[in-house]
Amino acid sequence: MRRYIAFLRAINVGGHTVKMERLRQLFESLEFAGVETFIASGNVIFESPVENPRKLEEQIESHLRQALGYEVATFIRSAAEVAAVAAYQPFPAELDTEGSSLYVMFLASPLSSEAQHKLSGLRTAVDDFHAHGREVFWLCRKKISDSLVNGALLGKTIGGPTTMRNVTTVRKLAAKYAAQQ
Fold it and tell me: Structural domain of residue 134, as residue ranges?
């Protein structure tokens, strides 16, 4: 069995409230093992013998759409991939600046060169972006609410669904679950 972490979009935001116990039960009904949730923002840890993450994403998305009545974009990463994302430092010196935050946007696939070009057009003195693999790192040098950039703009710029987590959450997931592999 392989351990995976599912990053779900539209869980406990935008009027869509799902209790973590219910989310855990929905994953267990798919016959996944060792199902746990991590904070109430749609992070689900589970084990599956399936080795194709895209197949798992499609299975989970279909099941959640049927059970919850709305689309839930799903981004699967192995525990090792989450550990690599957590360790990656695209802006190492910048994070020491008080008030700065680093966010990780999970994508279905790496950005095209066109999407990378569009994303670079959003850079300002407040916001910077770095694409790496199937993630985009967003450095916000102020509170995110003070930025002119938001999730909707990023999704439109990137050209597809994403889900975003603070790097602190990603690092906590990596510390807890990558060590258990």
Answer: 83-180
